[in-house]
User: What shape does this take?
Amino acid sequence: MEEITQQMKSVREISPEKTSQTEKRGHRQIRVAAYCRVSTDSDEQEMSFEAQVEFYTDKIMRNPEWKFAGIFADEGISGTQATKRPRFMQMIRQCQRGNIDMIITKSVSRFARNSVDCINYVRKLKEMGIPVIFEKEGLNTMHATSEIYLSMHGIFAQSESESLSGNVRMGKAMSAKKGNVSFSYKSFLGYRRGADNQPEIDPEQAEIVRLIFDRYLAGDSLTTIKRFLESRSYPSPTGKSTWSVTTIHSILTNEKYKGDALLQKTYVIDCITHKSKKNDDRPQYYVENNHPPIVSKETFNKVQEEMARRASKRKVKEVGTKTESGKYSGKYALTDMLICGHCGTPYRRCTWSKKGTKKIVWRCISRLDYGKKYCPDSPSVKEESLQNAIVECIRQVIEDESGYAVIEGLKHHICMYFGKDDENSTAEDEARAAELIQAITQAASTGKFTSEMKGMVEELNRVKAAIQEKKSRQSSEERSSDRINAILTAIDGLRDTPIAFDNQAIRQIIDCIKVMSQDEITIIFKGGFERTVPLK
Assistant: This one.
């Protein structure tokens, strides 16, 4: 038997064969893509953007081992969120499909300012065998130590982004303090950039805005306005054929349409996620008469009052429910204003059907859902009788002049109540406030707080409170006077036309209708004037 002897153990090193990248891939050129990004839309940055594209195109094309796989460039987009950079995400998809072998970019801050995003995408690419070359930092992500350095540079880039965000935030605050108003013309209906770089009215779009305001004041709900705009194919602020209720509400509440602007309504709380919040803890600035208005201040203020009125109205219960729910409906004016004179509950429109004959009646919701337990005396009223009584009441107001005279008298009493003749009182108070401020400033320069200074500060606070109260009274007077004028205008408009029940006209002049009994109702006009009329 052959004897096998153990030989001495030996270790031999095998050196790697040094081949070019082209040889590794079977003499195939490496498909190289470049990623470029600039942060703003300024002319200077735009030049930098074009220069980056030209530089990397030339660099890739001149290397015989590289094949041009595209330049992916995001212009004027922040680098804090990769998902909001369309060309960056397109580049990642091309890598996943196997169309790119290597990526080159100027620096870590160009690739991403969010350190988490930067590391995550570099790891994904590394798993696919795709290196990212950062030229400024001299990093190749396929090297073992690259991630440590990359993390450090990513943190610095994110810190730089946060610092820039703080500077931008401060700049916007200073700009707002100076009253500089910006417009997003691409998504703002009614205005366009003028020749002097100031907003000017776009006539066609402005008509749509005025139409929205007019229809809302005429009683249409937001949903009704939406359907109307879509039926007429009016384009939305973004140029779409469909409208949203939110967009219409935004138009109706945007003070820019009356020529003013409220600055710093919101602010960004995180430059990475770009999450913003409503500003309720930082200064805001209101700029009056900044640009030409599309609607008058009176019309805008009426819309805000109407919104508040609809929101404060007692909701009408839906059929078959035991709680009050629902929203304002512009279909029937009586739904919004008809209430029970006994329990104060709104009435609801019902259809009675008997032997094939249908009849429309209005019934107290409390009586309808709970029987006579809570409202034993409320009657059911025919819709035709209600409408005839309302039309007859309006005809009386127009023809006998007594009702018209009463409404005119209300306007006079409002002016008397608010003391419109005392127009100089606010000016005198403001002058006194200026004197006190000057005196307090001079006294404070001595560095001593005396009892005399304390007295001046207390007086200044009293004067400021008096100014605020008088301005509030003047504002209330103007709103009340506007309401009365609207009623008189609506009534004047009915004088020369045949009177018929019209939902929009009713909303303009009537605030509330109380069903007192089976035989009569009390109509309360806007402004407080009342008339009790019989039901027939």
User: Anything to note?
Assistant: The chain has three domains: 24-165, 185-308, 331-536. The radius of gyration is 37 Å.
